[in-house]
Write a structure and sequence with these properties.
The protein is α+β, with helices and mostly antiparallel strands. Helix content is about 45%, strand content about 15%. Helix 2 packs across helix 3.
Length: about 80
């Protein structure tokens, strides 16, 4: 089974997600052949600190968030 991890977003406030983004998340969550997990930014940050996760230098800056989200998901699902 495929696993997809999404970084959760606030519904209001400075870093709130837009309507289109939430619709895309809902579409991804409706995929039956995928196990979709939403990780909140606080959970990702705690897993990064606990397991000293770092993104490789070879990644572009905009890829770091996705890499850390995926890494935190793998570490958390191992428990």
């Amino acid at each position: 089974m495929r696993r997809i991890s999404l970084k959760g977003r606030n519904t209001n406030g400075k870093f709130a997600g837009g309507a289109v983004g939430f619709k895309i998340e809902a579409l991804v969550q409706s995929l039956e052949e995928c196990d979709v997990m939403i990780m909140m930014p606080t959970t990702i940050a705690s897993q990064v600190r606990r397991h000293t996760l770092t993104a490789p230098e070879s990644l572009y800056k905009y890829q770091h968030g996705a890499y850390l989200t995926a890494s935190a998901t793998l570490v958390k699902s191992d428990k």
